[in-house]
Amino acid sequence: MSFKSVVGATCACLSFVSFNAGAVIVNADWKASGDNLISNDLASGLKWLDLTETYGLTYEYVSAQLGSGGQFEGFRYATNTEVQSLWSNFGIDLSAGAATSISGQDPNVETAAGFLGNTWNQYASWDYPFGTSGITADITGSGHYALGAYQTDWGTTQYETIGLITIDNSLSSIVPYGSYLVMTSAVPVPAAVWLFGSGMLGLIGIARRKKAA
Prior knowledge:
Layout: H1 3-14, E1 25-28, E2 38-41, E3 46-49, H2 59-64, E4 76-77, H3 80-88, E5 100-103, H4 107-116, H5 119-124, E6 131-140, E7 143-151, E8 156-160, E9 166-168, E10 177-179, E11 181-184, H6 191-212
Parallel strand pairs: 6-10
Antiparallel strand pairs: 1-2, 2-3, 3-11, 4-11, 5-8, 6-7, 7-8, 7-9
Helix pairs in contact: 1-6
């Protein structure tokens, strides 16, 4: 097998991996083949529903749909800690305790929005090309926290960290937020093991194609 083939197989495997080498996140389907509405964190064993599926829905409504027969049956609200851990996989720290803003664009925000759902673009695409934010299970004041990050068209990146926003549970429309909903999947698989297995499958596939030719 040529060096070029090995590199190609390795790159194909790495396309599933977030920027944090200790975690592997892959897209998966929720209701229909190819919908890619689940982000499966293989390290934590948590499956995250795309935030665009709960975009603009209140905490009260979503909570009522978590039970048997509900729209989001099997899911639960994620905690601040779980959400922060998820974002750390993309190289973004949401644990600072206040809103932060930096000059320029952060490519990690675009990557996160690609996995988790581009809610800020739905809110106002002419101002916010990439970004995603959602409500968590943790309570502050009269509502719940919202965490996330977004980029602006005027050259800044904004990080929404703990304590920034209190979401009123009874609001009829919450924009640009979704809800962080998770369910537990199979037993977590160490990232290194998953990568090794994927790489071996890729190399075997290439070897078989070469042999068949």
